[in-house]
C-alpha cells in the first residue's frame, strides 16, 4: 500500500475512533440547530423561512470546530514532522488529510440534514436540497479551514485564531450555499445558478487550500 | 541609490529619516488643498451637502484596498524573493490599512444614516469592505500571536495572498447576494460622470490619503526595524549571561 | 461655509471628525512607538549592549 493511501486510512481510522471527531461534529450540529429555536422562539413559520440558513451556519461551525484537531494533534505528537520529511509530496498528504476530514465530518453533516430539518419545520424536499448543497459545499469549508489550521498549527490553543482567519474566507461559500438552498424555499431563481457557482468555489478551494496549507506548514515548521 | 540598498535596514533607516520631513510636508499641503476644495464644492442636487462625505469616504476605500494590494506584493517579496524588509513592510502596513478600512465603514455609515435612513445597510460595497476589515484584523491577530518575527512574516504572507485571491470572489459573491436581496437603492451622484467640481476635491483628498499612508507606513517600518533590534539585543544579552541574573 | 451644510450637518461634521480622530490616533501610535523603541535602545546601550556595528 502506498504511503499516501496508508496516511488516508490512518486519518479515517483516527476520525471514527472515540474522540476522533466524526460523531462529535454531527452532535454539535444537532445542538446548534436545536439552540436556534430556543433563541428565536417557537415561531414555526419563521424557522421554516430561515431553516436553510440555520442548517448551513450549523454545518459551518461544526466543520470549523473539528478542524483544530486536523493538524494540531499531529503536530503535538510529532507525526507532522514525519509527514513533512517523508517522500510523499506535502500537498498530497494534506489533501489526503482534508479528504478524510470531509468524509468523516462534512458528509455525516449533509446526511443528517434532512433529519435535523424536521426540528426547523422544514419540508423534506427543502431539507434534501439543503443536504445536497452541504454535500457540495462542505469540502470547500474543509479545505479553506485547512489553511487556517496550517497557519495556526504551532500556536497553542490556536483554535480561536483559526476561526478568525477562516470565517471571512468562507463568506462566499456560505452566501452561495444558502442561496442555492433557498431556491427551494422562496425561489424565483433556478437552482442551477447559485449551485454551479458553489461547485466552482469548492473546486477553487480544493486547489488553493491544498497549496496554501502545504506552504504554511513548510514555512511554519522549518 | 539602487533598490538593493533598500534591503539593508540601516540604509533604509537613513533614507527614511531623509524622506520623512518632505513626506510630512507634502501630506499636510495635500490635506489643506483637499479640504479647501471639499469645502468649496457645490452641493449635490439630490443629497445636498452630505455629498461632501464622499471626499473622505471614497479615498478611504481606495486606500483600504490598495493597502491589501501592497501587502500582497510584500508577501511575494517575503515568500518568493526573500527580500529582507518585505515582512517589515507587511507588518507596518496592516494596522494602517485596517484603520482606513474602519474609516471607510464609519464614514459610509454616517453617510448612510441621512441618505438611507439607517446606520448600517447590507449594501454590496459596505459588506465587502466589512469582510475586508475582518481579514485585516485576522492578519494583525496572526502577527501578534506568532512570536518569531520571521515565522510570523511567512504565515502572514500566505494569509495575505490567500486573502488577495479571495477578495474578488468575496466582492463578486456579496454583489450577487445583494442584488438578490435588495432592490437597487443605489446611491446616485447626480449622474454617471462625476462633475469636475466634485472630481477634483476627490482626487486631491485621495492624494492626501495616499501621502499620509506613505508617511505613516515609512515611520511604522522604521519603528518595526528598531523593535527587532531591541529584540535581538535582548536575546543576545540573555544568551551571553548564563546563570547570572539581571 | 460650515453654516450652510444643510439639515444633515451633524453627520457631515461627525464623519470629518472621525477621520481626524483616527488619523490622529495613528500618528500618536507611530510617534509613541518610536519614542518607546528609542528609549529601549538607549537603555540597552547604556548597559553596554550594542550591535556589532554600534561598537567603535
Features:
heterotrimer, A: 222 residues, mainly alpha, C: 56 residues, 1 helix, 0% strand
Which structural class fits the helix and strand makeup of chain B? mainly alpha
Radius of gyration of chain B, CA atoms, in whole angstroms: 21 Å
Q: Mind telling me the C-alpha Rg of chain C?
A: 22 Å
**Overall pLDDT of chain B:** 85
Series of H and E elements of chain B: HHHHHH
The count of helical stretches of chain B stands at 6
Shape of chain C: rod-shaped
Give the helix proportion of chain B (percent range): over 70%
Largest sheet of chain C: none
Q: How far apart are the termini of chain C?
A: 60 Å
What percentage of amino acids of chain B are in beta strands? Answer: under 5%
Given as residue ranges, the uncertain stretches of chain B (5+ residues, pLDDT < 50) are 183-192
Number of helices of chain C: 1
Biggest chain pair interface? B-C, 38 and 34 residues
Assembly of the depicted chains: heterotrimer
What is the number of E strands of chain C? 0
The total count of strands of chain B amounts to 0
How far apart lie the N and C ends of chain B? 43 Å
Weakly predicted, low-confidence segments of chain C: none
Please outline the helices and strands.
The complex is a heterotrimer of chains A (222), B (246) and C (56).
Chain A: H1 3-16, H2 22-40, H3 44-77, H4 79-85, H5 90-117, H6 124-151, H7 159-169, H8 171-182, H9 192-221
Helix pairs in contact in A: 1-5, 2-3, 2-5, 3-5, 3-6, 3-8, 5-6, 5-9, 6-7, 6-8, 6-9, 8-9
Chain B: H1 9-40, H2 54-81, H3 86-116, H4 124-145, H5 149-181, H6 196-239
Helix pairs in contact in B: 1-6, 2-3, 2-5, 2-6, 3-4, 3-5, 3-6, 4-5
Chain C: H1 9-46
Structural features, described:
The complex is a heterotrimer of chains A (222), B (246) and C (56). Chain A is mostly helical and 222 residues long. Chain A has one domain (3-221). Chain A has nine helices and no strands. The model of chain A has no long low-confidence stretch (mean pLDDT 88). Chain B has 246 residues and is mainly α. Chain B has one domain. Chain B is built from six helices and no strands. Chain B has helices at 9-40, 54-81, 86-116, 124-145, 149-181, 196-239. Chain B is globular, with a radius of gyration of 21 Å. Residues 183-192 of chain B have low confidence and may be disordered. With 56 residues, chain C is mainly alpha-helical. Chain C has a domain at 9-47. Helices cover 68% and strands 0% of the residues of chain C. Chain C contains one helix and no strands. The longest helix of chain C is centred in the middle third of the chain and has 38 residues, at 9-46. The model of chain C has no long low-confidence stretch (mean pLDDT 84). The B-C interface holds B 10, 39-40, 43, 48-50, 52-53, 56-57, 60, 95-96, 99, 102-103, 106-107, 110-111, 113-114, 212, 216, 219-220, 222-223, 226-227, 229-230, 232-234, 236-237 and C 1, 4-9, 11-12, 14-16, 18-19, 22-23, 25-27, 29-31, 33-34, 37-38, 40-41, 44, 47, 49-51, 53.
Amino acid at each position: 500500500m502506498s504511503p499516501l493511501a496508508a496516511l488516508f486510512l490512518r486519518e479515517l481510522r483516527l476520525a471514527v475512533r472515540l474522540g476522533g471527531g466524526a460523531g462529535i461534529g454531527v452532535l454539535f450540529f444537532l445542538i446548534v440547530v436545536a439552540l436556534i429555536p430556543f433563541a428565536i422562539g417557537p415561531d414555526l413559520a419563521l424557522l421554516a423561512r430561515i431553516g436553510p440558513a440555520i442548517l448551513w451556519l450549523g454545518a459551518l461551525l461544526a466543520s470549523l470546530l473539528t478542524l483544530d484537531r486536523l493538524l494540531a494533534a499531529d503536530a503535538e505528537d510529532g507525526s507532522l514532522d514525519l509527514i513533512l520529511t517523508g517522500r510523499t509530496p506535502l500537498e498530497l498528504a494534506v489533501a489526503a488529510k482534508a479528504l478524510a476530514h470531509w468524509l468523516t465530518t462534512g458528509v455525516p453533516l449533509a446526511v443528517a440534514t434532512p433529519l435535523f430539518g424536521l426540528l426547523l419545520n422544514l419540508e423534506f424536499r427543502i431539507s434534501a436540497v439543503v443536504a445536497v448543497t452541504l454535500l457540495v459545499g462542505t469540502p470547500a469549508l474543509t479545505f479553506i479551514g485547512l489553511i487556517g489550521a496550517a497557519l495556526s498549527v504551532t500556536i497553542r490553543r490556536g483554535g480561536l485564531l483559526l476561526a478568525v482567519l477562516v470565517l471571512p474566507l468562507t463568506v462566499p461559500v456560505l452566501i452561495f450555499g444558502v442561496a442555492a438552498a433557498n431556491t427551494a424555499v422562496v425561489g424565483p431563481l433556478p437552482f442551477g445558478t447559485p449551485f454551479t457557482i458553489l461547485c466552482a468555489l469548492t473546486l477553487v478551494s480544493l486547489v488553493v487550500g491544498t497549496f496554501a496549507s502545504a506552504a504554511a506548514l513548510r514555512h511554519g515548521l522549518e | 541609490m539602487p533598490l538593493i540598498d533598500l534591503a539593508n535596514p540601516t540604509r533604509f533607516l537613513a533614507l527614511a529619516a531623509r524622506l520623512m520631513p518632505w513626506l510630512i510636508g507634502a501630506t499636510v499641503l495635500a490635506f489643506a488643498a483637499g479640504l479647501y476644495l471639499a469645502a468649496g464644492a457645490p452641493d449635490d442636487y439630490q443629497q445636498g451637502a452630505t455629498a461632501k462625505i464622499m471626499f473622505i469616504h471614497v479615498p478611504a476605500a481606495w486606500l483600504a484596498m490598495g493597502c491589501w494590494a501592497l501587502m500582497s506584493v510584500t508577501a511575494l517579496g517575503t515568500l518568493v524573493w526573500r527580500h529582507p524588509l518585505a515582512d517589515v513592510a507587511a507588518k507596518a502596513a496592516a494596522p494602517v490599512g485596517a484603520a482606513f478600512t474602519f474609516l471607510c465603514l464609519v464614514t459610509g455609515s454616517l453617510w448612510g444614516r441621512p441618505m438611507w435612513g439607517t446606520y448600517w445597510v447590507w449594501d454590496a460595497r459596505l459588506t465587502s469592505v466589512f469582510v475586508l476589515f475582518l481579514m485585516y484584523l485576522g492578519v494583525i491577530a496572526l502577527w501578534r500571536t506568532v512570536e518569531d518575527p520571521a515565522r510570523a512574516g511567512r504565515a502572514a504572507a500566505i494569509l495575505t495572498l490567500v486573502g488577495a485571491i479571495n477578495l474578488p470572489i468575496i466582492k463578486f459573491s456579496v454583489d450577487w447576494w445583494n442584488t438578490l436581496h435588495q432592490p437597487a437603492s443605489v446611491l446616485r451622484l447626480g449622474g454617471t460622470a462625476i462633475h469636475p467640481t466634485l472630481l477634483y476635491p476627490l482626487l486631491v483628498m485621495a492624494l492626501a490619503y495616499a501621502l499620509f499612508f506613505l508617511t505613516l507606513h515609512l515611520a511604522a517600518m522604521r519603528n518595526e526595524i528598531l523593535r527587532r533590534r531591541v529584540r535581538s539585543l535582548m536575546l543576545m544579552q540573555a544568551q551571553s549571561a548564563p546563570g547570572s541574573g539581571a | 461655509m460650515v453654516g450652510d451644510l444643510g439639515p444633515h450637518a451633524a453627520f457631515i461634521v461627525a464623519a470629518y471628525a472621525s477621520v481626524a480622530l483616527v488619523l490622529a490616533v495613528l500618528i500618536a501610535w507611530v510617534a509613541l512607538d518610536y519614542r518607546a523603541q528609542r528609549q529601549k535602545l538607549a537603555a540597552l546601550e547604556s548597559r553596554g549592549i550594542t550591535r556589532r556595528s554600534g561598537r567603535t
